[in-house]
Amino acid sequence: MKFGIVVFPGSNCEHDCYHVVKHVLRQDVSFLWHKEKTLARSDCVILPGGFAHGDYLRCGAMAKFSPIMESVTRFASEGGPVVGICNGFQILAEAGLLPGALIRNRTLHYLCQDVYLRTDSNASPFTRKIPHGKVLKMPIGHGEGCYYADAKTLSRLEVEGRIAFRYCDPKGNLDEEWNPNGSLKSIAGVLNERGNVLGLMPHPDRCAEAILGNEDGRVLFESVIGL
Amino acid sequence: MKVRVTVMVKKGVLDPQGKTILASLHLLGYKEVTDVKAGKILELSLPKMGKAQLEKKVKEMCDRLLANTVIEDYEFEVGE
What residue ranges do the domains of chain A occupy? Predict the structure, then answer.
């Protein structure tokens, strides 16, 4: 399986993703510079974390116009698996590939900590190997990760089972105290209508091997392999 | 020509920045302030053109890039 990792000026997690895919999971992978127009025959596209275009104006606002995004949009519309992690999620939301927006954390602070996530949908290429309701621990590192969508969109996401991950306590209970950034409905990750595009604020790429003390993120990459 | 675009957080969308500024004003003793909304102002410089054409162009820029209409409202005024 071949992964393509999009690199924008200001991306800074592309090597974390590359390492997981190439050295931990032994898959084929290449970087895709944002000015390229093709996806180099990738079977799965990753938009990594970072600060694309300096996060100027709004996170992801400029990145959505990078030339490669046309190919990413086409690939997604054909059902290809696309995941946006952290800044990648913000870009997918700005590009309209995922609903809603990511706004400033409710505390205004940049947050760098572990969080607990409840898996609320395994109907996606990235979550299919995770049992429904399973709690995963993953790190976050963001200043603008508060998920917002209007009431109509939120209820639609819920009804259609498109909320992939929610912030929760270590046992999987939803609790505002364990919602680090104030995301509505404790949303940490959402899916598009078809289920092939996932965006999430936590970093599975930073917790995918034992040497790092946490392997909970690995299953997201494993799920997509062998599709 | 100058165009001044004002982008504000939509009504009903959380504005933690505004809330924090409000709390600071209260700390300084300005208890009479009941609400603060934080937004941004962008000043665009453009060559002279007809009003209708200019408004159409700026609206397009706002919708495509300058504002995210999921969470923000915008307005603009045209100057000299």
Answer: 2-224
